[in-house]
Design brief:
There is one protein chain. With 388 residues, the chain is an alpha+beta fold. The protein folds into 3 domains: 3-89, Butyryl-Coa Dehydrogenase, subunit A, domain 1, CATH 1.10.540.10; 124-229, Butyryl-CoA Dehydrogenase, subunit A, domain 2 (Beta Barrel), CATH 2.40.110.10; 245-379, Butyryl-CoA Dehydrogenase, subunit A, domain 3, CATH 1.20.140.10. The chain is built from 11 helices and 8 strands. It has helices at 3-18, 39-51, 70-82, 91-104, 107-118, 233-244, 249-270, 276-302, 312-334, 350-357, 368-379; strands at 124-127, 143-147, 150-161, 168-174, 185-191, 197-201, 211-222, 226-227. Helix 3 (70-82) runs parallel beside helix 7 and helix 4 packs antiparallel against helix 5 (107-118). The longest helix is centred in the last third of the chain and has 27 residues, at 276-302. It is globular, with a radius of gyration of 21 Å. It comes from Streptomyces termitum. Residues 231-380 form the Acyl-CoA dehydrogenase/oxidase C-terminal domain. InterPro entries: Acyl-CoA_Oxase/DH_mid-dom, Acyl-CoA_Oxase/DH_mid-dom_sf, AcylCo_DH-like_C, AcylCo_DH/oxidase_C, AcylCoA_DH/ox_N, AcylCoA_DH/ox_N_sf, AcylCoA_DH/oxidase_NM_dom_sf, Mycobact_Acyl-CoA_DH.
């Protein structure tokens, strides 16, 4: 048995023996459109994982991780998804900020922030998008001014996932008043449970409020809480996005496979599989998922030494478009009955929730349009779009 298979077996065995008792009820809980489910219980589960060394498995051991290889990290995320374990609560800190601090942070920043992330003692959210700067991150207007040994942050962020549960936010802000576009931006770590911060949940199509508006009105953070040098925010923010599209997407695809298998099973039960058009779409969905996995493995193999490069945008377009189409396919398999709510006042079925939430897949974390620009300019070397 190879080292990877031994590691996979260890993960599988630990999940089998610990996802029991009260934790067994958490199977399948959380996830897109269902982030509100059993939050406190999922937080307790994740802290239980941390106590047994199963958070941050890909981090170096010196920072509280297991130093798992890329192949072992893939095995972990796949086994976690195969066990139907609950959606992670601390993934933004673990998968996005943690690797960013390991790559760009100071020794003091790592000592202060990495241990609470590994222990799931502090939760994080991402302060990128703004009302006038969604996928166009270079257009941010939130500003931060130096005042002695602090930064003073003023502005608004929007679509901030899990801000209402988070303790901290990594914020891209303009620290050079005369700068434009990618220049003069800084990457700041800002406490959310402090004066000058207001968080307003946004109700989604699913009826839940996974993301929020965040207002900074003179909010303060220590001067030392800038990652990289002031003005290097664009480089650091792009690296964070690369980590976001990293190894954990393999676990995500296991979840996608489970959803597809459930749609196929439904089509067989209700007779929809007899429709040649729907049967063809189901087959295309299966081949599409295989393509997504192969591309993800290829991209990750080429980025084993660090954050995935701009090629990761190819994977983002693949899975986002595929998942959105799966939601539409699920509703077509359900037929006319899929238009009816499961109960009052707005009780959705899993298929309806999938369809509604997957509308956002091609928008968040960089819209498909932005991903195509990145691929054209930074992967293929094509000329940039002319700006007015």
């Amino acid at each position: 048995m190879s080292d990877v298979e031994k590691f996979r077996s260890e993960v599988r065995g630990w999940l089998r023996s610990h996802l029991t008792g009260g934790f067994a009820d958490l199977k399948g809980r959380g996830g897109p459109g269902r982030e509100h489910e059993a939050h406190a219980e999922r937080l307790a589960w994740e802290r239980h994982m941390a106590a047994h060394g199963w958070t941050c498995v890909g981090w170096p051991e010196e920072y509280g991780g297991r130093g798992a290889t890329l192949e072992e990290q893939v095995a972990f995320h796949e086994e976690y998804a195969l066990a139907d374990a609950p959606a992670r609560v601390g993934h933004i800190g673990e998968q996005l900020l943690g690797p960013t601090l390991i790559a760009f942070g100071t020794a003091a920043q790592r000592a202060r922030f990495l241990p609470p992330i590994a222990a799931v003692g502090e939760l994080w959210c991402q302060g990128y998008s703004e009302p006038g700067a969604g996928s166009d991150l270079a257009a941010v207007r939130t500003r931060a001014e130096r005042d002695g040994d602090q930064w003073v942050v003023t502005g608004q962020k929007v679509w901030t996932s899990q801000a209402h549960e988070a303790d901290w936010c990594f914020v891209v802000a303009r620290t050079d008043p005369g700068s434009t576009r990618h220049h003069g931006l800084s990457y700041l770590l800002v406490p959310l449970r402090a004066p000058g911060v207001e968080i307003r949940p946004i109700v989604q199509l699913t009826g839940t409020s996974e993301f929020n508006e965040v207002f900074f009105d003179g909010a303060r953070t220590d001067a030392a809480h800038v990652v990289g040098a002031p003005g290097d925010g664009w480089k650091v923010a792009m690296a964070t996005l690369g980590f976001e599209r990293g190894v954990s997407t393999l676990g995500q695809q296991v979840g996608f496979r489970r959803e597809l298998e459930a749609v196929i099973a439904l089509a067989r039960r209700n007779g929809a599989a007899a429709d040649p058009h729907l049967r063809d779409r189901l087959a295309r969905a299966w081949t599409g998922l295989e393509t997504i996995r192969s591309n993800a493995l290829r991209t990750l193999s080429g980025a084993a030494a660090g954050a995935p490069g701009p090629e990761a945008s190819i994977g983002k377009i693949f899975w986002a478009t595929w998942h959105r189409e799966l939601g539409a396919l699920a509703m077509d398999v359900c037929g006319a009955g899929g238009m009816l709510a499961a109960g009052e006042p707005y009780d959705l079925t899993d298929w309806q929730r999938l369809y509604l939430f997957s509308r956002s897949d091609t928008i968040y974390a960089g819209s498909n349009e932005i991903q195509r620009n990145i691929i054209a300019e930074r992967v293929l070397g094509l000329p940039k779009e002319p700006r007015p």
